[in-house]
Amino acid sequence: MQNDTPKPHQTPDALSHFKPSLATGELNHPAGTLVDKYGRRITYVRLSITDRCDFRCSYCMAEEMTFLPRHQVMSLEECWRVAAVFVGLGVNKLRITGGEPLVRKEAMWLIERLGALPGLEQLVMTTNGSQLTRFAAPLKAAGVKRLNISLDTLKPDRFRAITRIGDLGKVITGIAAAQAAGFRRTKLNVVAMRGVNDDEFVDLVQFAVDRALDISFIEEMPLGEIHGRNNTYISSAETRDILSARFELLPSSELSGGPARYWRIPGNESRIGFISPHSHNFCDTCNRVRITAQGELYPCLGQNDAINLLPVLREFPHDDAPLRQAIIESMGIKPFGHDFTQQMEAPQVVRFMSMTGG
Ligand code: SAM
Ligand code: SF4
Question: Cα separation of 316 and 132, whole Å?
């Protein structure tokens, strides 16, 4: 499934080559935990295990994508070390993502080990669902607690147009396989796009409600050089108005540990979430960092600053202390927040979402 076509790779412009210092740093935090300079405790890591994907969603990737050569991607053992060190620093939730995590060869090797990691309370995954017929049961057996599955449309032709190469049928059977494997509170992720899928918001919620799935609508973010976003941006408030014409929506105080704000339909199990990076900035309660497949630690999805853990991993293959120190020191560069505006045309972050991991 891995695409080996060599193409020039787009690299983040503000990447620092991190050399660990042995100083304890200026951050004042309780030993064994990660606290940033604004006092936010980091307990949640999103780990991308590949930049590759079997889809090319138009809002996420360019049509002709540039993938990393293998030696620039963390090995599964390196992914494991990074995760284990974070858990040792008090992280209790880990989301495996990508690219499409399930196209990474031997991904189950890593996931089985993570599932057995003491202290990791929630191992979860974001997937496009295309491989779930095969992997849902092993993921469940490995201890993955919940899945987020991306689904922007229920129309096969439209699905093909949005993903450029995807097959809706595989995703629908993948969702069924997840439910048959015993996954509960599976969440559908819908990127809300005006003129693309706004006529299906009601049908997508009905699809979720009929299957006791949760569903979240995501405002499109300006990540990577993709044209036409100004035309498709639609706010969560407008999405909610569209849904309110059909469903009675009651605000819920539930939080899932992520950025979504939830609503419920009375008498129904499904939660309807809205992830609103533009219209409702959620940075003040941010509890997470992201690790790319090439080992860059991005303290903020919406900023370009990063620390490169790969040289540390490779320079000290048998000693986790420098890696631990690098992670602790990264807290010093976590910004207060992103500054996405509704000016969508110029990318505010040069890397694609598939690079950082959603
Ligand atoms: N391949 C997996 C998938 O699609 O679920 C995991 C990685 S994908 C990058 C994670 C999430 O990011 C998906 O739900 C996708 O819809 C979302 N996403 C990608 N690009 C986005 C963008 N520009 N704005 C908002 N969400 C985006
Ligand atoms: Fe692949 Fe997910 Fe990006 Fe779509 S959103 S191209 S499935 S990584």
Answer: 36
Q: 53 CA distance to ligand 2 centroid (A)?
A: 6
pLDDT 10s digits, 264-279: 999 999 999 999 887 6
**Residue 53 beta carbon below 6 angstroms from any ligand 2 atom:** yes
**Whole-number pLDDT of residue 315:** 98
Q: What is the pTM of this model?
A: 0.88
Q: Give residue ranges with CB within 6 A of ligand 1.
A: 53, 59-60, 97-98, 100, 126-128, 150, 189, 191, 218, 220-221, 223, 353-354, 358
Count Cβ neighbours within 10 Å for each residue of 91-121 and write b for 16 or more, e otherwise: bebbbbbbbbbbbbeebbebbebbbebeebe
CATH fold, domain 12-26+34-356, is TIM Barrel (3.20.20)
Six-digit token string for 81: 């070390």
Atom 4 of ligand 2, nearest CA residue: 57
174 lines ligand 2 (CB under 6 A): no
Query: 224 and 349 in contact (C-beta within 8 Å)?
Result: yes
Does ligand 2 lie within 6 Å of residue 220's CB atom?
A: no
Question: Tell me, what's the pLDDT at 26?
Answer: 41
Kindly report, residue by residue over 109-119, the tens digit of the pLDDT: 999 999 999 99
Give the chain's residues under pLDDT 70: 1-31, 224-228, 256-258, 279-282, 302, 336, 338-358
Spatial distance between the Cα atoms of 280 and 274, rounded to a whole number of angstroms: 10
Instruction: Please report the pLDDT score of residue 260 as a whole number.
Output: 79
Nearest Cα residue to atom 19 of ligand 1: 60
The residues near 244 (Cβ < 8 Å, ≥ 6 apart) are none
User: What spacing in Å lies between the alpha carbon of 181 and ligand 1's midpoint?
Assistant: 24
